[in-house]
Amino acid sequence: MNKTVGSTLLVSGTMIGAGMLAMPLTSAGIGFGFTLVLLLGLWALLTFTALLFVELYQTADSDAGIGTLAEQYFGKFGRVVATAVLIIFLYALIAAYISGGGSLLNSLLSEGLGNSVGIILFTLIFGAFIVIGTHSVDRINRVLFFVMLAAFVVVLGLMLPEIKMDNLLAMPIDSALIISASPVFFTAFGFHGSIPSLNKYLDGNVKALRISILLGSAITLGAYILWQLSTHGLLTQNEFLQILKEDATLNGLVKATLAITGSSVIASAVKLFSTLALVTSFLGVGLGLLECIEDLLKRSFNISAGRISLGLLTFIPPLAFALFYPEGFILALGYAGQMFAFYAVVLPVSLVWKARNLHPNLPYRVWGGNVTLLIVLILGVVITSIPFAIRAGYLPFVVG
User: Fold this and answer.
1) Burial 45-63 (b: 16+ CB within 10 A, else e)
2) CB 364 within 8 A of CB 206
3) Which H or E run includes 42?
4) Which of these, 73, 24, 23, 379, lies nearest to 234 by C-alpha position?
5) Helices 250-261, 66-108: inter-axial angle, 10-degree rounding
6) What does this protein do (predicted)?
7) 394 DSSP 8-state letter
8) Residues 29, 32, 34, 39: is their CA dihedral positive or negative?
9) DSSP, residue by residue, 292-354
């Protein structure tokens, strides 16, 4: 039971982070009602696909990674594709966190230093903990995570009493924004990369893993609804959009909060929570990416790289993106959502489709037959294509 509780908190803790900070930025023009529909729909979709991995683990060892699952059903090609998509996904997340963290850190520095200074300092300071090692990350992450939870409670306590019903009833500025926002919201429900670790921790206990996923994702959904309720209810839609057009970063969210509420206390609480959520997400994803690169070099190229070399491989590509696209927080999260759509929807559906043909009598089977799998697969492909449609001009940008 203790392991199940711990796994539930890990599922929730993995999701609650920087992704939820982008929600007000991407949903400012949508309205709370449609945002709620989007939250519920994507929660149901990603909880369903997470449970598909639970079904798959009945056919594999408890310590098997997702790359191993892919190789089990699709050979070496499956492992290569799954690993490549995971690395690209993590790079996109790190780029988003560096962009967002740089904008927040720059707002704390003297004027004139420039956003690039904030981006570089954010990467150097918090990237150092990752390069030093897992123990270093674990110690700082524990402290920051509990402070972040306390800050979240304070933010809700300050914002919820100030919400206005007229703000919550606002309709979308452009209905197509609901589609454009999907990849960013999609990423905020991402914890699927941690399922192999959870399954190993639970010694392959399928029932405990299923309970952890259902409860952990439900806790996250509740937190997201409260966050969206407070931001949409507090911030006037048109004014919020205008401020975000001028500064489409996390610092823009803080500025919007201050301008519309006139409360420096609320704005400071939002900034503290935003900063902590970014840092905790950056530490977890950065460590995962560094270890993924280390494993790839060892297993595929027989190269044993040092921590500094691994750190450079981990942070230089996303740092370059953040420097060339300093306003790229939403852009990077959108492309992360694109990669994640393949990793968390297309891949598990494909694996389960094949697994059910080979193992038709598994004890646990996720609800729905082949028709349900096909519908989910189509949704995954559609979400994967959304960033391309935005860049091509067929869909509006979520900000600006």
Assistant:
1) bbbbbbbbbbbbbebbeee
2) yes
3) helix 32-56
4) 24
5) 50
6) Involved in transporting aromatic amino acids across the cytoplasmic membrane.
7) S
8) positive
9) HHHHHHHHHH-----HHHHHHHHHHHHHHHHHH-TT-HHHHHHHHHHHHHIIIIIHHHHHHHH
What does the pLDDT look like over 136-167, one tens digit per residue?
Answer: 777 787 788 788 888 888 888 888 888 888 88
DSSP E strand stretches across 207-304: none
The 10 Å Cβ neighbour count of residue 374 is 13
Spatial distance between the Cα atoms of 65 and 294, rounded to a whole number of angstroms: 15
* Cα–Cα distance, 316 to 299 (Å, whole number): 22
**Domains of the chain as residue ranges with CATH:** 3-392 (1.20.1740.10)
pLDDT tens for 239-286 read: 677 766 666 666 777 777 777 777 888 888 888 888 888 888 888 788
Q: How confident is the model at residue 317 (pLDDT cuts 50, 70, 90)?
A: very high
For residues 98 and 136, what is the distance between their CA atoms, to the nearest angstrom? 19
Rounded to 5, what percent of the chain is helix, strand, coil?
80, 0, 20
